[in-house]
């Protein structure tokens, strides 16, 4: 198996799901990960060391570990979290490993590549930027609009997000990040926290420009949940509308949504305004939680890779 060159963008559990679904389909897989987390272990390391928050990068690396003994062991090691009465409490071992390699190499991308070598990761993990970002949002609540700063604060703010920004406004983007999108046979955007893990990519202009150029080979994966705090009061049509507002040039080839949203006529209207194809599929986990099932998501990706004619698709995916 070689497979197409696939780039997946996002952060957190959503990106973990898409990478886990794509990993069996191609050996040429790259993750581009948001760098705005300011909570938990990542937030502490970011504040104490002045580094890019490593947590979402760690999760992406763990998703690229294979299913053999080596991969399973290192996946567990990366995700190990200390529980102590001292300063290590709450820290992830993987976060500390990544931070240590950054300190040794002096380079964010090189450090991540070294971790990937150690894990024998099936793919590469790259940051959206090589400096930590601060997300800010205008949130419309019962008392009117207010400005909220920080990823955790935005993700948990009650209200509807009507504006989104980042600081610094023009962060430095690694050349490898831009090249990976430019050279991709397929780009996968989402699922994930809509504003802080998905739309934030469009606030970094060089990345937005590459995503616009790659629109005709992009799959946009919509979230399943109706009740996450970050998009409270919004539906999937609202999510599409928010993306169109932030980057009107972007028009994905396919919008992939769970069948639970099939009765929403406004979603069809919003996607048709793009001229994109709307695909509904049963992607919810069997335990009925509002998260994507990796095997079901992999099946849909396999079909769409074939239908979109992504170069280098392995023979097993051609029906």
Automatic annotation (TrEMBL):
Family matches, as SUPFAM superfamilies: CofD-like
Source domain of life: Bacteria
Keywords: Cytoplasm
GO terms classed as biological process: regulation of cell shape
Entry similarity comment: Belongs to the gluconeogenesis factor family.
Functional summary from the UniProt entry: Required for morphogenesis under gluconeogenic growth conditions.
Name of protein: Putative gluconeogenesis factor
Organism for this UniProt entry: Demequina lutea
Upper lineage: Bacteria, Bacillati, Actinomycetota, Actinomycetes, Micrococcales
């Amino acid at each position: 198996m070689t497979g197409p060159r696939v780039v997946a963008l996002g952060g957190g559990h959503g990106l973990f799901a898409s990478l886990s679904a794509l990993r069996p389909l191609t050996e040429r897989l790259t993750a581009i990960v948001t760098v705005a987390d300011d909570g938990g272990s990542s937030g502490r390391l970011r504040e104490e060391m002045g580094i890019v928050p490593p947590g979402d990068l760690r999760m992406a690396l763990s998703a690229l570990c294979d299913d053999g003994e080596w991969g399973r062991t290192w996946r567990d090691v990366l995700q190990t979290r200390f529980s102590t009465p001292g300063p290590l409490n709450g820290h992830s071992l993987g976060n500390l490993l990544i931070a240590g390699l950054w300190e040794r190499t002096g380079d964010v991308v090189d450090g991540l590549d070294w971790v990937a070598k150690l894990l024998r990761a099936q793919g590469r993990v790259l940051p959206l930027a090589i400096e930590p970002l601060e997300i800010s949002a205008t949130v419309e609540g019962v008392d009117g609009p207010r400005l909220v700063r920080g990823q955790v604060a935005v993700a948990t703010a009650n209200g509807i997000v009507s504006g989104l920004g980042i600081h610094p406004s023009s962060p430095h983007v690694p050349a490898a990040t831009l090249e990976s999108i430019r050279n991709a046979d397929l780009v996968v955007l989402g699922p994930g926290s809509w504003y802080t893990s998905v739309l934030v990519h469009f606030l970094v202009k060089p990345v937005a420009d590459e995503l616009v150029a790659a629109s005709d080979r992009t799959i946009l994966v919509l979230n399943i949940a109706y009740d996450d705090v970050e998009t409270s009061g919004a539906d999937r049509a609202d999510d599409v509308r928010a993306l169109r507002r932030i980057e009107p040039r972007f028009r994905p080839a396919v919008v992939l949504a769970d069948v639970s949203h099939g009765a929403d006529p406004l979603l069809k209207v919003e996607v048709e305004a793009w001229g994109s194809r709307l695909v509904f599929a049963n992607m919810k986990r069997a335990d009925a939680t509002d998260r994507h099932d990796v095997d079901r998501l992999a099946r849909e990706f396999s079909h769409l890779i074939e239908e979109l004619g992504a170069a280098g698709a392995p023979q097993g995916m051609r029906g």
